[in-house]
Design brief:
single chain, alpha/beta, phage-related protein like fold, five-stranded mixed β-sheet, four-stranded mixed β-sheet, 6 helices, 13 strands
Length: 311
């Protein structure tokens, strides 16, 4: 049994416990840290099914020069490359014994509830960032290859490379920006994705801010204006679940650049829910506080995203 061992009464109410739980579950993060609820890093959506089935959409191509009195040029939108994301269920519970209440150990209960709320958020964030952490391996897109790959294919039949060639630096950031700008969509047309968000592990955060936000060009003695801060306004965010300390594919040299319309997704089936089971209905007198949520994360397509998979 998972629990705290040392009847429930009116001082242990769901409202009181929830107020402690949610204070730790969803604290307001600093602007430099990302999480599963960040809609610049994860496109947010909901689902009413146990699995999300997505297809890649190819819209119409470029408009065509049409002679006077000629028919309008036609095109046929297509969908292809179906991919399925299965919703996962996450749960945790613990027992509040009669003795804890009798001995007035309410601070112990509050600490346990706070820890439970904290770990709910940690579970969401670490699992979500795993989509990026494993971008060169187990995170697959609808064309069957890893999210970061030199062999993506679009519906038009083009081969697309969304990998950046080297470790984070002024030159490779420029390379990544140009990759997004010149990247072809599913119809084979260059859309011109504007780099909006730079995601890095903590080991790269300082350098990323210096390169993107300094007034003058970083890491040089030349007194030149910094084009990244002057023209692009890229938002820099970090995640402690992207670097080597997180394990599971993390590395301190991973970094990602994404535009507004990338397709790394978070689908919520059931948001975090809690329930207090009254001890008067349990044979041993324990009250049980439990929580659950159901959601899934995944990448539909390569579009509007580029990154470096590490050395």
């Amino acid at each position: 049994m998972a629990g705290l061992t040392s009847g429930a009464n009116s001082s242990v109410t769901k409202t009181a416990l929830d107020s402690v739980f949610y204070q730790r579950y969803a604290p307001t993060p600093g602007p430099q840290f990302t999480n599963a609820r960040d809609n610049m890093v994860f496109q947010q959506d909901s689902t009413d099914r146990a699995a999300v089935i997505m297809e890649v959409f190819k819209g119409v191509g470029l408009w065509e020069d049409t002679p006077e009195q000629a028919e309008y040029k036609g095109d046929t939108p297509l969908v292809n490359d179906q991919i399925t994301f299965t919703v996962a269920k996450f749960t945790k519970k613990f027992h509040i014994t009669e003795e804890m209440i009798e001995d007035d150990q309410h601070s112990v209960v509050r600490k346990a509830i706070a820890q439970m709320g904290l770990k709910a958020g940690v579970t969401q964030n670490k699992t979500a960032i795993g989509t990026y952490r494993n971008a060169d391996g187990t995170t697959l897109t609808s064309d069957g290859v890893a999210l970061l790959s030199a062999s993506h294919t679009n519906i038009a039949g083009d081969t697309i490379d969304n990998t950046i060639s080297g470790a984070f630096a002024v030159s490779t950031l420029e390379e990544g920006i140009n990759l997004l700008v010149e990247q072809k969509d599913q119809a084979g047309d260059i859309i011109g994705h504007e780099a909006k968000t730079l995601l890095v592990p903590p080991a790269l955060f300082k350098e990323a801010v210096e390169i993107t936000e300094s007034t003058l060009e970083a890491n040089t003695t030349d007194n030149q204006k910094n084009v990244f801060s002057a023209k692009y306004g890229i938002r820099v965010v970090q995640s402690q679940y992207l670097g080597a300390a997180a394990g599971d594919g993390g590395a301190d040299d991973h970094w990602f650049l994404m535009g507004e319309f990338h397709s790394v997704m978070r689908w919520v089936r059931v948001p975090v829910q809690t329930r207090l089971l009254d001890g008067s209905y349990q044979e041993n007198g324990d009250s049980v506080y439990r929580g659950r949520f159901r959601e899934v994360y995944g990448a539909v397509s390569y579009e509007a995203l580029a990154g470096y998979e590490g050395a």
